[in-house]
């Protein structure tokens, strides 16, 4: 793997979805997680989430990952120092988590490019609603090792 640079987006491949984080330096990422312990699709859809700063390897665990700044082809990325400052300023904040409207992928892409977009959701819309609910049960959960403090 290449070493991530400040402001890089990290795509982590879970069993049946992707989790996203933004690299903020010194081995840390900032990411948006929905509150785990939620089991039904309907409640995940409206669940609150928290922005966390954690060590990259605590978030990635044993899963595959890659740097994915593919959105840069469509939108000009913001300066790396601005991405990192804004990401760090969000740590600890509670935001409304919505699988379709605002999930972990929307969060990091908005930080990097100023546009909240989720290709996962776009792909699921093609599959139909059942796919969205299936993903909702698992979407953007906390790190593999469980919640940790900042």
Automatic annotation (TrEMBL):
Record GO terms (molecular function): N-acyltransferase activity; phospholipase A1 activity; phospholipase A2 activity
Top-rank lineage group of the source organism: Eukaryota
Coiled coil: none
Gene3D superfamilies, A to Z: endopeptidase domain like (from Nostoc punctiforme) (3.90.1720.10)
Residue span, LRAT domain: 9-120
Record-annotated membrane-spanning stretches: none
One Pfam family matching this protein: LRAT
Keywords, in A-Z order: Hydrolase, Lipid metabolism, Transferase
Keyword Transferase: yes
GO cellular component term of the entry, any: cytoplasm
GO annotation terms (biological process): N-acylphosphatidylethanolamine metabolic process
Family label: Belongs to the H-rev107 family.
Protein's name according to its UniProt entry: LRAT domain-containing protein
Organism: Oreochromis niloticus (Nile tilapia)
């Amino acid at each position: 793997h290449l070493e991530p640079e400040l402001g890089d987006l990290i795509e982590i491949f879970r069993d049946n979805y992707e989790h996203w984080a933004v690299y903020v330096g010194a081995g840390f990422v900032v990411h948006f997680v929905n509150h785990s312990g939620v089991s039904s699709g309907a409640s995940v859809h409206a669940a609150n989430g928290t922005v966390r700063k954690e060590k990259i390897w605590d978030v990635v665990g044993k899963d595959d990952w890659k740097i994915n700044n593919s959105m840069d082809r469509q939108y000009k990325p913001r300066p790396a120092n601005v991405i990192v400052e804004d990401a760090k300023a969000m740590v600890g904040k509670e935001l409304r988590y919505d699988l379709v409207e605002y999930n972990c992928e929307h969060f990091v892409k908005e930080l990097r490019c100023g546009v909240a977009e989720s290709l996962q959701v776009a792909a699921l819309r093609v599959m139909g609603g059942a796919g969205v609910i299936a993903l909702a049960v698992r979407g953007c959960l906390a790190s593999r090792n469980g919640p940790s403090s900042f």
